[in-house]
Amino acid sequence: MTEKERFWIIKCPRCHTHQIADSRNKSKTCSQCSRRFEILDLPILASAKDAREARAIVAELKMPRTTLSEPKVI
Fold first, then answer.
1. Which of 3, 30, 43, 45 has the highest count of CB atoms within 10 angstroms of its CB?
2. For the chain, which residues make up each domain, given as ranges?
3. pLDDT (tens digit per residue) in 39-70
4. 41-47: long-range contacts (C-beta < 8 A, 24 or more apart)?
5. In DSSP terms, which residues pair with 9 in a beta bridge?
6. Domain boundaries 3-62, corresponding CATH code
7. % of the chain residues with pLDDT over 90
8. CA-CA distance, 29 to 39, in Å (whole number)?
């Protein structure tokens, strides 16, 4: 395992919250619903070399998706 892919971004199988998992671990407990799950059983959405980059990826994934063509409602 290289340092390049140390942190993985995954989703909790119960509540679908984005989670940052250390790739050296086998399992993780969700910070929202407290479910413990195996990391290797889930699809990896993204990977990051450090925790700061992983947090930035999760923040980007949480942002609502809008298109420029949608009218702005006031």
1. 30
2. 3-62
3. 999 999 999 999 999 999 999 998 887 665 66
4. 41/13, 42/10, 42/11, 42/13, 43/10, 43/11, 44/8, 44/9, 44/10, 45/8, 45/9, 45/10, 45/11, 45/18, 46/8, 46/9, 47/4, 47/5, 47/6, 47/7, 47/8, 47/9, 47/23
5. 20, 46
6. 3.90.820
7. 76
8. 10
